[in-house]
Amino acid sequence: MELLVVGSGAAYPDLPGAASSTYVVTHGDDRICLDLGQGGFAGLAGRLEPSTLLAVVVSHLHPDHFIDLVALRHYLRYEFEPPRRVRVLGPRGLADRLDGLLAQPGFAAEALDIEGRREGTIRIGPFSIESRLVTHTDESYAVRVSIADEPSTPGLVYSGDCGRADNLAPLIRPGDTLLSEVAFGPGPVPVGDLHLDGPSVGELAAAAAPARVLLTHLQMRRDPAATLAAVRAAYAGPVTLVADGDTFAV
Ligand SMILES: [Zn+2]
Ligand SMILES: [Zn+2]
Question: What's this model's pTM, rounded to 2 decimal places?
Answer without folding.
Answer: 0.98
